[in-house]
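[worker-b] picked up task from shared queue
[worker-b] task type: protein-ligand structure
[worker-b] ligand name resolved to magnesium ion; SMILES cross-checked against name lookup, match
[worker-b] sequence length check passed
[worker-b] input payload:
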Amino acid sequence: MIFPSNVKSQIKAIFSDFDDTLTNHSLFHSKTLKTLESLKQKGFWLVLVSGRPAGWADCLMRILPIDAMVFENGAGVMIKEGSKITTVRLASDKNLSEEKKILEELFISLKKEIPHLKLATDQPYRLYDYAIDFIEEPPPLSATETEKTLNFLNRAPGITAKLSSIHINYWYGQHTKVTACEYLLNTEGKTRSIHLENVLYSGDSPNDEPLFQFFHHSVGVANIRLFWDKLKFHPKFITQLEGGNGFQEFAEELLT
Ligand SMILES: [Mg+2]
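[worker-b] inference finished, payload out:
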């Protein structure tokens, strides 16, 4: 048993990270799809909250039984109504082409110091941010190289950099996963009478930390333990199992 009954009775929506929370070692298993289908059938409002590109969001929104998806760490959201998918851009487009040049220059400067540094293979499908792959594909960055990259990017004026379980994402602007979730709650959430206390957030890594702080109810899948000491704000609950198996573990409790 993970959730006390007073928590369980409040939950009407599940906001979840994707990589390593719904997947295991980058694979999305059929049992996890079945779990999403069951949650949807029970009437839960399902929202993915990810650092993945707009291109991934367009695909996942079409093939998964989800209602909305936050992409590129809050740069925008996609919302599904029947077969219609609406994209809302929350980041500013005003200086986008100049900003993207600076994001590229930052990558080039870093690569001079860390020659095996590489962009994520999903970079071409991103509208706003840059993603450096530290462990999704070989060769991985060492913990020291990852730390050095994050510190370098966070020192650049106007840049926000965040560590996911696979990428270091960096961008211009004040948007975050939290601001995008707030947008969804204030718009779609309101029309469904879903408020902050009705949401359960699930995640697995440091870039989920602001959401563990923001949402009243949160759960970490077991692999969050890898990053436990890096976190100031921890999820309220933790599953026994990792990734998609952990997602199924807590979802089964909500479904019974
Ligand atoms: Mg993750």
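[worker-b] attaching auto-annotations
[worker-b] The pocket of magnesium ion is lined by residues 17, 19-21, 164-165, 204-205 (CB under 6 Å).
[worker-b] releasing lock
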